[in-house]
Amino acid sequence: METTNILYIGRHIEILAIVVRLINSNEDWNGVGVMNDEEAKEIFCQKEFSVVLLGSGIQKKSETDLCVFFKKQNPNIIVVQHYGGGSGLLKSEILVALENNKN
User: Fold this and answer.
1) Can you tell me the mean pLDDT for 10-39?
2) Closest CA to 51 of 22, 31, 21
3) Single pTM value for the model
4) What are the Cα distances from residue 21, in Å, to 15, 59, 71?
């Protein structure tokens, strides 16, 4: 099975580390976490991501700008807002997003 690359953008270093660890606990997923928009855009252009997770603390304007940028670079990118709720919810959000993208 092909590895799914997932970019997590969060503003809190502790939460970022936990989310990336949880993503990487799935053997079919590869998570990368960043804290700022510029770094997110840079890494998005360097690697092929299937999913972008937007964490809590991202201002609305920044969220809008990021979504526009990601969709312009890759119209098929899946962008999911993830505000927490535990590892089960995170996994479910990613799986549902990937499944919905197939249809």
Assistant:
1) 96
2) 31
3) 0.93
4) 10, 24, 26
